[in-house]
Amino acid sequence: MSTPPRWDLSNVYPSLESREFETAIATVKGHIDGLEKLFADKVARMNAKTPVKELSAAVGDAIDRFNALYETAGTVRAYIQSFVATDSHNTQAMKKMSEFQMVGVRMQNLGNQFQAWVGRIAPVLEKIIQANPSAQAHAFSLRDTAEQSKYMMSEAEEALAAELSLSGASAWGKLQGTRGP
Predict the structure, then answer these.
(1) At 104, is the pLDDT very low, low, confident or very high (cuts 50, 70, 90)?
(2) Architecture in CATH for domain 19-176
């Protein structure tokens, strides 16, 4: 019996244990730390009455930081998922996926905070979009984010929902993916 083919993912990271992969995880966590600090130190104090120049700079900064975060996190997530999807009994990959899902909760909480904030600054959103190139490039998404913010739960409820997602649907999906014959 021949060995089934395997994907060669070494062009992304050498392995799940490699220094390069661990550096990417640390980079994602560093981006999250930076965004959490931005939100705690700056964004939390800003609302629609904050001067548009300050708001547009903060919105642009947040967008740029989120883009950097999502680019690296998306690569890491896809890399881990490629192992899990092709071998549901790969315990190392499953462990890395579980660890990364905890990072994902932090990302989701930041996304929720950003969405709520964009909703709060919606009265001046068009001025913000005109004042910042990153905001201009993401104008559709910002407008949609402001609209969708109307349907959010409280910050505490959104955070709880993000945390519970790990024990709900994703846990069910893991169970279904690892069931034996």
Answers:
(1) very high
(2) Up-down Bundle (1.20)
